[in-house]
Amino acid sequence: MERVGGTPRFSARLVDRHWLAPGILELRLTRQEGVTFIPGQFLRFVMDGYERDYTMVSTPDAKTIDFCIAMVEGGRFSRDIQKADIGTPFELTGPHGHFVFQGPANSAVLVATGTGVAPFVAFCRSGLGTGLLLHGVGAPDRLIYRDILQSALPGYVPCISRPFEKMDRPDNAFAGRVTHYLEQQLTQGVYDFYLCGRGAMIRDVTALIDQQFGDSRLFIETYD
Ligand SMILES: Cc1cc2nc3c(=O)[nH]c(=O)nc-3n(C[C@H](O)[C@H](O)[C@H](O)COP(=O)(O)OP(=O)(O)OC[C@H]3O[C@@H](n4cnc5c(N)ncnc54)[C@H](O)[C@@H]3O)c2cc1C
Questions:
Q1: Domain boundary residue among 37, 63, 96?
Q2: Which among 20, 57, 102, 204 would be 20 to 30 A from 122, CA to CA?
Q3: How far is CA 72 from its chain centroid?
Q4: Residue 160 confidence (pLDDT) above 90
Q5: Residues 6 and 87 in one domain
Q6: Average pLDDT, whole number, for the chain?
Q7: pLDDT band with cut points at 50, 70 and 90 for residue 69
Q8: Average pLDDT for residues 126-150, to the nearest whole number?
């Protein structure tokens, strides 16, 4: 493994790629000896002419390094990864980032939208999952890693923003956005909030925390 300005740079091969849900791929790359990270961190894919960051959903000691990736219309990496053959080598740098579990100071409230659930999957798989997890999705079939999250966290609440058939309603689901759940259901208190996903959700939830849960601690990872 080479180091560039103190950051490890290494190569890993694509060993598996499959659909987790409509529009969401799970990738598995080989993990060579010495590659390690803290659950919640991300790796940077150094592509031909551009770079993209993705959070690991696997544990640091697993045989493969796994990611869940939402396909974006017109996205460069989204296009390139669908075309890559199994066995393709990728250049990566990292681990990067500080979005890691900070210890149980206050009750944890983990809030994700879409593939923003990735660091929380890594937390749960590493035995660090605790507290309440709100996973915001458009429809029930986008609830990736539901079994793992539900069994690790009794406080797992899928938040489904679009109307859906009652028969498709997962156990414990909340009909509405994560912001509505926090506004309407979370009791007053001081929490450790961990927010991960698109900027719009992070902005809305941060404003709400400022108004309603002012003394809480806040940790964020923005995907755009
Ligand atoms: C620290 C970090 C960790 C990340 N981890 C993950 C992860 O684990 N899983 C994951 O899926 N993504 C993750 N992302 C986002 C990821 O890095 C890319 O931005 C995303 O996959 C789009 O890349 P692309 O090359 O396919 O699209 P691009 O070529 O970058 O974008 C094409 C167009 O789509 C828009 N766009 C970009 N992302 C989205 C989106 N999510 N929804 C709608 N429109 C979008 C862009 O604004 C642009 O107009 C992370 C980002 C950061 C900063």
A1: 96
A2: 204
A3: 16
A4: yes
A5: yes
A6: 94
A7: very high
A8: 94
Q: What is the mean pLDDT of residues 188-206?
A: 97
Query: pLDDT-derived band of residue 167, with 50, 70 and 90 as boundaries?
Result: low
Domain presence at residue 102 = no
Reported in sequence order, the residue ranges of 103-224 that DSSP labels E, i.e. its strands, are 107-113, 132-137, 155-160, 174-175, 191-197, 217-222
Q: Whose CA is nearest to atom 32 of ligand 1?
A: 75
Q: Which of 87, 85, 75 is nearest to 50 (CA)?
A: 75
**H helices, E strands: number in the chain:** 5, 13
Domain count, the chain: 2
Ligand 1 atom having least distance to the Cα of 198: 41
The whole-angstrom separation of Cα 17 and Cα 86 is: 8
Name the residue of 44, 52, 115, 121 to mutate for ligand 1: max ligand atoms within 8 A of Cβ: 52
Task: Supply 26's token pair.
Answer: 């799970």
In the numeric block, the tokens 């669908």 are attached to 82
Q: Report yes or no on 101 lying in a domain.
A: no
What is the model's pLDDT at position 43? 98
Answer yes or no: is pLDDT of 85 > 80. Answer: yes
User: Residue 40 has what pLDDT?
Assistant: 98
**Domain limit, last residue, from 66, 96, 126:** 96
- Domain extent at residue 88: 2-96
